[in-house]
Design brief:
The complex is a heterodimer of chains A (107) and B (119). By secondary structure, chain A is mainly β. Chain A has strands at 4-7, 10-13, 19-25, 33-38, 45-49, 53-54, 62-67, 70-75, 85-90, 97-98, 102-106. In chain A, strands 2, 4, 5, 6, 9, 10 and 11 form a seven-stranded mixed β-sheet that branches. A four-stranded antiparallel β-sheet of chain A has the order 1-3-8-7, with no helix packed on it. The mean pLDDT of chain A is 97. Chain B has no helices and eleven strands. Chains A and B meet through strand 5 and strand 10 of A and strand 10 of B.
Chain lengths: 107, 119
Amino acid sequence: DIQMTQSPASLSASLGETVTIECLASEDIYDILAWYQQKPGKSPQLLIYDASSLHTGVPSRFSGSGSGTQYSLKINSLQPEDFASYYCQNGLSAPLTFGSGTKLEIK
Amino acid sequence: QVQLKETGPDLVQLTQTLSITCTVSGFSLTTYNVHWVRQPPGKGLEWMGAMWNGGGTDYNSAFKSRLSISRDTSKSQVFLKMNSLQTDDTAKYFCARHYYDGYPYFDYWGQGVMVTVSS
């Protein structure tokens, strides 16, 4: 199984700041990676797919990058609605696996 | 519009069988794949398995032979059945749609059903 190691587990930031979340795959996943946002009590929402493609309707302050085993999600100019948990997901091979999540909190 | 909705029990007894139904609208099960993902309270996401648009299935081996996924296309429903439930099966269970004809990313999710396994 492909392991997805996500960091940091939690992150505290202020409105307007830029933050980056990292995801390390245990093997090359050839950019077949997604990022999701999840707010408390809600279902996850797709943000980024294929490592860097922005899903329909997602604000352009979200961006994804990376290749091979190392990927990142960057959020520019944090807005109040961005404070949530974020997960990466391996889409290359079954079992599909998720990172353990990053909780982004307001400082 | 695209919707998925899970229905199932709130509480299941230890060692019993869990049955959840995912009813979809706004798309066809013969065109899109549907997956099951669960999330224990306060924890991360775990992929359980998939119902492919052609009628086949795929399972996370972590669930060994406990898990079964099926569908009724005439009712636009996908079913999850898992037996021999343990307390660590307590989780919110989601069904999610596979982003069209590409790699398995999930573009629409149900609201989830929280299932508690009680002894």
